[in-house]
Task: structure prediction
Amino acid sequence: MTLKPEANEEEALEAVTRETTPAEASMDEPECYKAWRARERVVIQYLEDVTKRPGREQQRMLEHILSKNGDCEYLRQFGLNGATDVKTFKERVPVSEYKDIWPFIQRVLNGDFSPVLCGDRIVEILQSSGTTNGKGKLHPVTEEDLNLRTTLWNIMTPALNRAMPGLEKGKCVFFYSIHTSILTPGGLVAQSATTSFIKSKSFKERLFNPSYRLTSPDGVFNAHAPPNEVMYAHLLLALVQREEVMRMGSIFANGLVRAIRYLEEFWPDLCEDIRNGTVNEGRLRAEHIKREVVGFLRADPPRADALREICSSESWEGILKRIWPNLKALDTVTAGASAIYIPNLDFYSGKVPIICTQFYACTEGFFGINCEPTKPPEENAYTLIPTIAYYEFIPVNSRRRVSRPAASSDDGGRERSFQYSADILDLTQLEIGHEYEILITTVSGLCRYSVGDILKVVGFYNATPSFQVVRRKKTLISVSNEKTDEQDLFLAVTAAAKLLEPLHLRVHDYTSTADLSAKVGHYVIFWELAKSTSNSTSSCTDLPEDVLDDCCEIIETNLNDVYSEYRREGFIGAVEIRILKPGTFDDLGKHAFSIGTSVTQYKTPRGIEVTNAPVLAILEAGTALRHQWQGTPDPNWHQPLQSSRV
Result:
């Protein structure tokens, strides 16, 4: 069972998207294992084939998309006239952003099922987390789009099993949960991408895969319940099956840290439930989750005693490996600014390897996988699968804004977003070491759409580029026309955090804002600290003034060159660090969940807009210490570690 290099792509896609057949459902276990291994060989061969010929696959993907969507209202305005070739597409269709397609999306939301954005019928609406500004974006998707997301999911597990054999001998703990869905005025379901996938037929009727046996039944993942109740259920089931757990994860690293801290707080209740074979009524009220959990429980005093002895130890350093002795990997995203959580995970796990089987994905689509998921976090890279979407790339530092009117008057004379005058490259034209802004064209109607990510090419998987997500394009903080982005701030914070190591402290989490209340505005960096060793006697909320001064200075010297220039010239005031009380970032998460953010997709916002009063109020209430540097910038200020202005 192999796919020849010239195999029809539709047949190949079917091999990696199909669900369990009645015949497979009736197989005994040895037959299931045999079918599973054969299927994984097919999927790996498919991955090898399509990444060896990305140019051809990309050309065919664009032809497929334009043949489906070329007559939709959005594309008609650019006069393609049936053309499906790359040259015409690039000449006539402009780069787009969310504001360009929002009028068309609004019509879909209100029940317009004519071919507005794409030729196929829209089946649901996916909503982004709104981490950046608290306002989630809404994206219509088709059935084919959802199937392509399943394709990527079905490729990832064989890639992991190839790199880390033996996972089929144990189980996985994943702290996933669904979020409440809503109905649009037009009757479509709107929900997060994670919720959509967990509720999908593809997930519920997934093929037999012994390396993806979950400690929680599907009923827990699909439960409509408060996030803390779902978390309690996941942890209780993971503790009951502690000897079988080999992999533990969440989509983003902050979600995994949140689960560990929840365990740190509520382990006495969990141990009591295991002792009695019951469910704590105060922690788990939802009856439908209780029914899923009780089948796994029996009174087990020896297990409860063993866990109580472990959890009551003075230090929680290495606790995960002590609770789950066969744990082989933590599976989560630690790329970009999420790398701040690596010390936390290393502390709690005793440096269990951190792997990443999560996709390069966003609400707009699932596009890439980590083909070598067991590499160290700093070497993790994603490979875009050429048969999922059509990709283009704007070289960073070589773009200029040019105004471009719409191609026809059908839109009432609106002027479109800027288009870049720099050359826009294809997937086969990228170079190692260079950074690019990615554009996507999808079957659901996104055309040359900027998702806002900056990628850096770090290698190739076969003939297809592999990249790391460097940062978001969006400016994080600005006081005086300078632009500090996520990577700028991350480099500065991690450099300053090294000064805390002699105190046996680490930065648990951080965010930032601009204080514009004074004549000269300045940056405010919020830190929540945690102890990095069990013998630390340092306070997490009261640092020596000289240490804070040094931290402020290090942050300033590691921001980008425009910040440095403006700071020296007095257009920006000295940076301020505010130390937060433990649990403040948990409060930020609770606020986000209360206003509709998906728990599974939530990421700590790295920059808080000055107009976001509710979040700023939480940070203000959690502030334990304020310190603004009173020093003067060195006139021989050295260059930053890395300037990421674009």
The chain is about 35% helix and 20% strand. Confidence is low (pLDDT under 50) at residues 1-8, 399-421, 638-646. The chain has three domains: 54-125+134-143+367-472, 166-355, 486-628.
